[in-house]
Amino acid sequence: MKGSTLAMNKNKFVYTAFLAIAFAATFSACKDKRSTGLEYARNMYDPIAYNPDQPNKNFKDGKTAQLPPAHTKPVGFTEYDEYPNTKEGYEAAGVSMVNPLPVDTVNLAQGQHLFKVFCAPCHGEKGDGQGHLVKIEKFSGVPAYQTGASSRGGNMVDLTAGKIYHTITYGVNNMGSHASQISPTDRWKVVMYVQQLQKGQ
Amino acid sequence: MRDISVILKSVWKSLFVFSAISVIAVSTVNAQDAKEGRTLFKAKCSSCHALDAKLIGPALTGVSDRHDEAWLLKWIPNSAGLIASGDAAAVKVFNENNKVAMTSFPELDETKVKDILQYIKEGEPKAATPPGGAVAAKDESTSGLSIAGIVAIVVLAIVILVILGRASKLLERLILLKQGIEIEEDVPLKVGVRKMFKNKKFVMFFILCLIIALGSWGWMGMWNTGVHTGYQPVQPIKFSHELHAGINQIDCQYCHNGAFKSKNATIPSLNVCMNCHKAVQARDKYDGEISPEIKKIYNALGYDPETQKYDEGKAKPMEWVRVHNLPDFAYFNHSQHVVVAEDAIRKAKGLQPTEPVCFACHGPVNTMEEIYQYSPLTMKWCINCHKETDISGQKNNAFYAKVIEAHEKIKKGEKITPALLGGLECGKCHY
């Protein structure tokens, strides 16, 4: 009797020991997805200069990305101060701004690409106000370029290039400003393509 | 008697059926109104109004209690006219809402306005089905290698168990033979183990196992040092690429618009979030409250959804955790890959025309609820792709056209300067 108990104890001991080792090995083989794992010479990964999105103690607000100092502007920056984000600015832009780019296939093709990326999610690829986000009811109240009415008076189909440019730059109602995403030149390409869509082409 | 009860029963039945039908009929008539109103509301009103939240205009729930219907029937089709006529209520509403003029809707006649008011009264119908695809099957990203490793370890453990089981039984028998069965005292376990380790074969086997295990662990550890594949840190906002890029089908470039223009793909600043989330607040999922994750955007910007004003004093930058991090000594340019080399990369990686070229390295981002690093981003990985990708036949590519032009000049013996080869690009030196 005693002998068999001893044998059982020993078997139990051996089995638990090896199960424990097997478990430990299995779990240590699993990588922790929240950590980058073992790293050698981490300082070679980190930039010496500050990345724009890094904290920075040298500035008061602790950010690396700073606005340009007052009364300065970056090289190549297009000013848009003469048309402020008001009803008057909108009307003025509608009267006096003209598309500086020639209407050609290259500009239109680029305009179409930009339109698909930045506008079509709501406005629809044909500008009919039936984009994917409208269809799945995440967004609504998007007017069609061909048939809708503009909230600032008149019909969408009659909007001039300057008014469309003003709207992309500042946004209106639930549409936000897209100035940070689309450069001024690209905005004119989008305007060109939107004007094609207004005609239903 | 029986007949009477049967007749009564049938009368009850028909009464019940009749009343049920009439209830359904009445409710469908109402629903028809509200349904029509909902369509009109979504098309005409919702760019400025929501039912239970202030957007550009005030929240509309309870609007029929605040104003009488006759007034609303005048206000909605032509609010500007009503204000101009000097109507006291109209001027008050206009002033209360920062003097933002409401669009005139001359096309909305009395029935249409009543439909809209009916919809506002009834509110949003309760959704019967949860939005599809939200609970899409999650792709477990356990790599084949780690599965193979686990299986190998388990098999090894079983083999060792079997062998040791036998060895221990043998030892047991030896002990029993030496000591005799009559011995009453227990042999302490320690003694047994000590005896086990006196067995040279066993010790050899044990050491061999140890060397294999530690050796392979060390080898794999060295290979994986500094490789961040699968790295999925916890981000300050639970931003789901699965929702935004997958279900909502928003193009990568909408937010990461730098990828096509510059070295960096750029993490969008919060104003890009606000392009949609000024209006999209997911209130239907949080009992009419703003989603706590969307609230984090508002808090970071110091934005007050009630007044729709920004307070820069309360703004605090969002500290995203960087996932993809090349060592600082390696130069990588996004635009060079996704614009110049788009066709070649698509062909090499076998991407579908509907998939963005970004998937070639970043993997199926539209299925990632939390973003993780899909590719190893090691030097070997870069080199292999640069060795295998076929870039012949890039005739209409401005980049290669320039290269060919330079080659022609060299062939003809014309003057050629580093500037012609892009030597004046700032990024050639300053990156």
UniProtKB/TrEMBL annotation, chain A:
Gene3D superfamilies xref list: Cytochrome c-like domain
The organism's place on the tree of life at top rank: Bacteria
Membrane-spanning parts: none
PROSITE patterns assigned: CYTC, PROKAR_LIPOPROTEIN
Key words, A-Z: Heme, Iron, Metal-binding
GO molecular function, one term: metal ion binding
Domain Cytochrome c intervals: 106-198
Signal sequence bounds: none
Pfam families reported in the protein's UniProt record: Cytochrome_CBB3
Protein's name according to its UniProt entry: Cytochrome c
Lineage of the species this protein comes from: Bacteria, Pseudomonadati, Bacteroidota, Sphingobacteriia, Sphingobacteriales
UniProtKB/TrEMBL annotation, chain B:
SUPFAM superfamilies in the cross-refs: Cytochrome c, Multiheme cytochromes
InterPro entries for the chain: Cyt_c-like_dom, Cyt_c-like_dom_sf, Cyt_c7-like, Multihaem_cyt_sf
Annotated Cytochrome c domain residues: 32-124
The protein's name: C-type cytochrome
A Pfam match: Cytochrom_C
Gene3D superfamilies: Cytochrome c-like domain (1.10.760.10), Cytochrome C3 (3.90.10.10)
Swiss-Prot/TrEMBL keywords: Heme, Iron, Membrane, Metal-binding, Transmembrane, Transmembrane helix
Biological classification of the source: Bacteria, Pseudomonadati, Bacteroidota, Sphingobacteriia, Sphingobacteriales
CDD domains: Cytochrom_C3
Top-rank taxon, per record: Bacteria
One GO molecular-function entry: heme binding
Residues that span the membrane, as ranges: 145-164, 202-223
